[in-house]
């Protein structure tokens, strides 16, 4: 299949969703180099509003019955606009079908330019560029990495040619090189697009990190302080948030806490390692390459001081800027026989051949390739499949969040995605709050009024309906939408907090009345939620009672000691024994039960 046929197949799927990149890079059986294909398709789309006029006026599709509208656009694009012309041998039939109309195509191309009052082809190029720009202009967000530098140093060096302005909107509108310090996130600037910062010394040395504003929310909201102890970044690659955490802990102590950074994908973990090294956080960041966070044991002694966890798991990536930004494709009409020049004749039935080429432009199966934020591709061809994908992602995201809630010393968690779907965002938050582990360990939502100033002030909050109508949860959730006046990517983050010194909710397995009191029978025995009755205290031994393991659920372990068979150890009053209490000789057989160790899930 020629480059042009492959490109035509890609373009025929336009309008069926998925970004152009995902449609091209998602195809496994391409013959042409993907980069060449991408450039041809993208450029042809950009030029199509001009080329459509040229093709119709030159009556190309009337004379060349084998050409489809899409193929004609691609070939005429290369013939008139590309430096190297049509990338086919001179004798090739497709090339010949265009070059036969050389004179007419050139003269219609000139007419199309003059109609727009553009004196040269270069000006026509600039016009096409301007017309093809889709969506709002984005500033370049840059985080100044205070492990390596200071904001004032960067102002005097990297950004010395940039004129300070008040707001990000001023940056976007400025015709000069403008810079504004962000009012919400410390050490973050928005600068005018157009400068390639990856070529600067500051970028190479890790002094600046290119990171969207919204992506800076989780580490800032987590706000790890020396009292929080060590920090976990559970899904860390490529390392934007890990290095931001590094900058925060570094700024708060001469002896920074350890950051444990887990990354399941070995290849991405290499990028993470490189980024952490360049950013200068390698001295206090321990990277576990290829480590699945779900397999990390919360009760391992290594993590006993982990007080703060950042969870930024894989998601649908629907908030990422740059997706779906494809210029519109303008297809030339196929003239029907007998029609006036360039105008389809409505009264005449299209010939069989014409119907075939119309069909050919549409015959590619409607498929969207959904590319997750970590590059995983999934074919989606219906709403149902999309829902199934979101459900699968949210199941994984919730599991990860509940796992994080089990770390014994944890007191803060942030959960974030760059997805716009409520299923991956507010719904996960609600399910986590309702979970047994959250209830037994005392996890609560981090309310808006308790958030760090910049996040409290950020105006875009969670979706009330998606938060089940719970105003407090919706306000606590932080959202960002691409394309609005804030000029950031689509994002979601929520925080969870827990007071590790407070008495955990011992509600556990008992039914409670509206006042929160345990419901007891006439004998004073608590009623179990499972419908049975707790063991009669008079039957209990002096030291402990062993509860039936029936209905045992890992998440219900919470703060209670269990014996080797997983049964909760209770005192003579039937009250569960807290893990933090002294060791208990549970079975009365002289075996010690450790308070935290040995209860890994
Ligand atoms: C959204 S990206 C993280 C982006 C990162 N936080 C940043 O700011 O640069 C999600 C990452 O989590 C990794 N991941 C997915 N599941 C994981 C798991 N169970 N344990 C550890 N890493 C996981 C993916 O490989 C991917 O690199």
UniProtKB/TrEMBL annotation:
Give the signal peptide range: none
One Pfam family this chain carries? Methyltr_RsmB-F
Tagged with keyword Methyltransferase: yes
Q: Where is the composition biased (Acidic residues)?
A: 588-601
What is the organism field in this record? Answer: Coniochaeta pulveracea
Q: Which SUPFAM superfamilies match?
A: S-adenosyl-L-methionine-dependent methyltransferases
* Basic and acidic residues: bias regions: 350-365, 559-570
Q: What is this protein called?
A: SAM-dependent MTase RsmB/NOP-type domain-containing protein
Q: Which residues form the SAM-dependent MTase RsmB/NOP-type domain?
A: 130-499
Q: Would you name any one GO CC term?
A: nucleolus
What PANTHER family does the record point to?
28S RRNA (CYTOSINE-C(5))-METHYLTRANSFERASE (PTHR22807:SF4), NOP2 YEAST -RELATED NOL1/NOP2/FMU SUN DOMAIN-CONTAINING (PTHR22807)
**Catalytic-site annotation from UniProt:** 418
Give UniProt keywords alphabetically. Answer: Methyltransferase, RNA-binding, S-adenosyl-L-methionine, Transferase
* Residues reported to bind S-adenosyl-L-methionine: 235-241, 263, 292, 312
Biological processes per GO annotation = rRNA base methylation
């Amino acid at each position: 299949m020629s480059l042009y046929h492959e490109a035509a197949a890609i373009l025929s799927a336009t309008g069926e969703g998925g970004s152009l990149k995902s449609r091209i890079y998602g195809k496994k059986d391409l013959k042409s180099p993907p980069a060449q294909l991408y450039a041809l398709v993208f450029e042809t789309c950009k030029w199509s509003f001009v080329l459509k006029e040229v093709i119709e006026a030159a009556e190309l599709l009337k004379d060349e019955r084998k050409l489809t509208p899409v193929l004609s656009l691609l070939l005429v694009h290369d013939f008139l606009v590309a430096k190297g012309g049509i990338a086919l041998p001179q004798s090739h039939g497709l090339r010949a079908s265009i070059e036969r109309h050389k004179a007419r195509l050139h003269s219609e191309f000139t007419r199309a330019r003059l109609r727009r009052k553009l004196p040269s082809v270069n000006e026509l190029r600039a016009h096409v560029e301007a017309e093809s720009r889709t969506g709002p202009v984005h500033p370049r967000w840059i985080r100044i990495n205070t492990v390596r530098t200071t904001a004032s140093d960067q102002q005097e060096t990297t950004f010395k040619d940039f004129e300070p302005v008040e707001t990000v909107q001023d940056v976007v509108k400025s015709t000069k090189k403008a810079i504004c310090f962000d009012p919400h996130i410390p050490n973050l600037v928005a600068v005018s697009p157009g400068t390639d910062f990856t070529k600067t010394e500051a970028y190479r040395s890790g002094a600046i990190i290119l990171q969207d504003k919204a992506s800076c929310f989780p580490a800032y909201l987590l706000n790890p302080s020396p009292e929080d102890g060590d920090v976990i970044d559970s899904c860390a690659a490529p390392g934007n948030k890990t290095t931001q955490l590094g900058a925060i802990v570094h700024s708060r102590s001469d002896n920074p806490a350890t950051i444990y950074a887990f990354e399941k994908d070995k290849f991405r973990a290499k990028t993470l390692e490189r980024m952490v090294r360049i950013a200068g956080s390698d001295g206090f960041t321990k990277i576990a390459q290829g480590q699945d966070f779900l397999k990390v044991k919360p009760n391992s002694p290594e993590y006993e001081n982990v007080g703060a966890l950042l969870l930024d798991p894989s998601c649908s990536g629907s908030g990422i800027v740059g997706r779906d930004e494809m210029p519109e494709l303008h297809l030339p009409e196929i003239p029907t026989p007998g029609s006036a020049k360039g105008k389809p004749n409505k009264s005449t039935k299209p010939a069989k051949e014409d119907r075939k080429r119309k069909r050919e432009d549409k015959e590619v199966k409607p498929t969207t390739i959904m590319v997750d934020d970590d590059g995983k591709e999934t074919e989606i061809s219906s709403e149902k499949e999309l829902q199934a994908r979101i459900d699968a992602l949210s199941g994984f995201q919730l599991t990860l969040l509940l796992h994080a809630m089990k770390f014994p010393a944890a007191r803060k968690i942030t959960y974030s995605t760059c997805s716009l779907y409520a299923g991956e965002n507010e719904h996960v938050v609600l399910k986590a709050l309702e979970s047994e582990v959250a209830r037994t360990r005392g996890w609560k939502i981090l309310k808006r009024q308790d958030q760090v100033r910049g996040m409290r002030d950020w105006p875009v909050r969670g979706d009330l309906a998606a938060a089940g109508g719970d105003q407090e949860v919706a306000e606590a959730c932080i959202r960002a939408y691409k394309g609005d006046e804030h000029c950031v990517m689509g994002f979601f983050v929520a925080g969870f907090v827990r007071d590790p010194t407070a008495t955990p909710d011992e509600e556990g397995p008992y039914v409670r009345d509206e006042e929160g009191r345990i419901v007891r029978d006439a004998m004073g025995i608590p009623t179990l939620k499972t419908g049975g009755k707790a063991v009669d205290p008079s039957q209990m031994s002096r030291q402990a009672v062993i509860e039936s393991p029936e209905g045992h659920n890992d998440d219900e372990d919470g703060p209670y000691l269990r014996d080797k068979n997983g049964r909760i150890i209770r005192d003579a009053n039937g009250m569960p024994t807290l893990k933090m209490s002294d060791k208990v000789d549970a079975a009365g057989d002289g075996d010690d039960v450790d308070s935290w160790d040995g209860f890994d899930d």
